[in-house]
User: What shape does this take?
Amino acid sequence: MSATTLAPTEPTDPTAPVEQRRRRLPIWFWPAAILFAIFVLAVLRVITGANDLASSGAIGAAIALAVPIALAGLGGLWSERAGVVNIGLEGMMILGTWGAGFFGYHFGPWAGILGGMACGIVGGLIHALATVTFGVDHIVSGVALNITAMGIAKYLASRFFTGLPGGGVTQSPQLPSLPRLSVPGLSGPLAELESQRIFFVSDLAAVLRGLTTNISAFTIIAILLFIGTFYFLWRTPWGLRLRSCGESPVAAESLGVNVIKYKFLAVTTSGALAGLGGAFLALVAANIYRDGQTGGRGYIGLAAMIFGNWRPGGLAAGSLLFGYTDAARLRGGGATVHALFLLVAVILLVVAAWQLKRGRKIQGYLAALTALAVAVWWFFSDTLPGELLGATPYVTTLLVLAFAAQRLRMPAADGAIYRKGEGH
Assistant: This one.
C-alpha cells in the first residue's frame, strides 16, 4: 500500500475525527504553563514554609520517580492506540528488571538496557499472541501475564543470581552505573540563586538546576522516546495506520491495512517500552535487581496513560504528577506533603471552575466540595500522619483522575476482539 492510501486528514477538515478537530494550543502555552506552575509553588513555599517543595533535589527525584512510570504508560499507549488493552505492563516491567539485572551484571549497563528491552519484548509477544492471534480476552491475558512474570522472574533470579557476589534468590549483585550528565557552567550559579530564597527567582533556578544537573543518560533516552512516539504516531502515515487499527480495524482493513501486523508491532513495542521501565528501576533507581522491584508501577503507568487521554504529553504530565508527590513524600516527610495538600485544594478548585464552565454541575460541585474539605483539613492540621504518607501519591492521582475523567476519549475499538476479514 502506498503512503498516500491512508494519509492524515487535515485538522480543518470537517470530516476529520473529533480528536483531530480539537483546537491546537498555541506554541507559547506550555512554557507559560510551566512558569505559572513554578510561580504557584513559590507562593506555596512562602505560605507554608516548606522549602523543599521546589528544590533542585525534589525536582531531580521527581524526574527519577516519573521515568519508569512514564515508560510503562508509553508502552500502554502504543498497545491501546492499536486497539489492544495492555494490563500486562506490570509483568513486562518485571521481566525487564530481571533482564537488566542479568545482562547488566555480565555485559555492562548498556547491555542491561537492551536486555531489559528484550525481556519486555518477550512479554509483549506473549500478550500479542494470546490477544491478536488466539482472541483471548485482553484483560485475562494481561492478568495472566502479570502473575506468570512474577514466577518466572523468581525462578530466573534463583537460577542465575544465587552464588554470585551479593546475589541470591531475591536480588542480583550490584550493577554498574550508567553515566550521568550535567550542563556545564550552570550548576554552581543556579545553586547560588536557589540558596538565596528569592521569591520565584530561586524557585525557577531550583527547577532549572534539577533539570540540568546529574541527569541519567537513561532519562534522556526516555525523553527522546516520547518525542519519537509523538512524531511516529501523529505525524507519519505509518502511525495513522496503526491508530486506525484502534479506532476501526474493519475500516482500516478495507483500505488495505494489515491490521494483524500493526497490532503485533504495537504490542511488541509496548513490551519493549515497559521492559525499559523495568530496566530503569534496576540500573538507575537502585543499581541492583530486587524481587518485587516494580511495586505496581505498571498499573500506575496505565493510570497515567488514561489521565493523559492516550496522548504522550498528557501521559508525561500524569507521570510527573505521581513522581512529584512521591518525591515530596520521600524527601520532606509529613510536613512537606501537608503543604502539598494546599496545592491539591487549589487544583481541585480550578477543576471545579472548569467543570462548571462546561455545564457539568455535578462534577463541578463535587470537585469544589472536595477542595473545601482538603483546605479545611490543611488549615486545622500541622502535618500528615505517617500511616497516610505512603498513600499520598495514589490519593493525589486518583483525585485528579476522578474529576478530570470526563474529558477522556479512548480509542473506539480498544479491547475489542478482532478477526481478520470479519468485515467482509
Observations:
- DSSP finds 17 helices and two strands in the chain.
- The CA atoms of residues 175 and 287 lie 5 Å apart.
- The first strand starts at residue 180 and ends at 181.
- The chain has two domains: 50-307, 333-408.
